[in-house]
Amino acid sequence: MKSLDDIAAALEGYDPQALSVPHVLAFLDAMITPLDAQDDQDLPIAQALGRVLACDAISPVDVPAHDNSAMDGFAFAGAELSPDRPLSMRVVGTALAGAAWQGTVGSGECVRIMTGAVMPGGLDTVAPQELVSIDGDRVTVPAGRLQRGDNRRLRGEDIRAGHAALRAGQRLSPAALGLVASLGLPTVRVKRRLRVAYFSTGNEILSLGEPPREGAVYDSNRYTVMGMLDRLGCEMIDMGVVPDDPTQLRAAFLQAAEQADAVITSGGVSVGEADFTKAMMRELGDVAFWKIAMRPGRPMAVGRIGNAVLFGLPGNPVAVMVTFLAFVRPFLIKMMGGSDPAPPLMQAVCTEALRKKPGRTEYQRGLITRNAAGQLQVCTTGNQGSGVLSSMVQGNGLIVLHHGQQDVHIGDTVDVMMFDGAI
Ligand code: AMP
Ligand code: MG
Q1: Higher pLDDT, 343 or 132
Q2: Dihedral of the CA atoms 219, 225, 228, 230 (nearest 10)?
Q3: Does 203 sit in the ligand 1 pocket, CB within 6 Å?
Q4: In this predicted model, what pLDDT tens digit does every residue of 54-105 receive, in sequence order?
Q5: DSSP 354
Q6: Using a 6 Å cutoff on CB, does residue 285 contact ligand 1?
Q7: How far apart are CA 253 and CA 310, in angstroms?
Q8: How remote is the CA of residue 130 from the centroid of ligand 2, in Å?
């Protein structure tokens, strides 16, 4: 495991007092230790939602297993079609899904077939029910409307036997669970869940249930962090609010590091903090204290205590969420072996002018919609103060104004990061 000093030395232009967001991401990448393969687990599909696949899921079968019909209609040999003549055929039987037609079908004959039913031998084309005219046991396909092979799904067209249906690193979505189940596989091999301990620091922070007092604020960070960790499928260890008291802080850090793969705290890392949080991090671990060239979220501490990774997030509620989304979330996903650490940035037309100083990355809370032309457009949610948590609720994504970017004019295109399922 590389020390933080080693990582810093290898990073050109590393300046802890004014660290750019790309530098933060590069530094964090060098810190990641993925979960041990020894801890991989075999889980029933029904328990695997949100887990990360530990190895490729190889299909034991072709999917679909047989050529089958994509429509309700009439199956026939496409070679009988001619472009300028209707095709009239006699119906000789019915193929149901789950009950294949066993008879033979001669020239001028067809089989009534249901969606998903196995194509009878020798037949390769399906005329949809709504296309044909039916008269007793005869159906007629109009000229020029069908080609050979239409409305037939080919055996193995989705997945071929022996091929990977899903790759290691895939986070198992509802669609992925369905896909694995469609192969007949009852279990999947997944990474174990990450254990993450978190607590809030500060003498002014009240836990729910405590009476309000002058100058104190209720702890919101623990709930946003909890929610974002839950969305990632982490095992969570809630350690409450820890006051600025060396004994309690020491106990909390040691207990958290002992039990968890990662420890997330909020508050107490800004310059001039009168509290003991930073001192305790320094004493117990290998920790770097950064001023990041970003807004919101300037101060942050990162390092290790024992075997656990430490993220000392700023105290302001929006800064906590933004630094989590920008740094912690991708880090944790990579630690879990996931191959989708960050959602793709999208582009939207900005409908308002935004002030932006080059030399820092800004994350403004945005409301992303579609304009009349069908393009994505974005406006801010108003007050962008780093304590204004309602902006995170009103917004559905972040406007990402990159390090070198300058003022944004109405009509300019900006990058946006949709919240999707992340928050
Ligand atoms: P700090 O980084 O500790 O100086 O905190 C910055 C600001 O965030 C202060 O106004 C704190 O009161 C506020 N803050 C810190 N922790 C929390 C928390 N857990 N919940 C809500 N606000 C907090
Ligand atoms: Mg504080």
Answers
A1: 132
A2: -100
A3: no
A4: 999 999 999 999 999 999 999 999 999 999 999 999 999 999 998 889 999 9
A5: B
A6: no
A7: 9
A8: 70
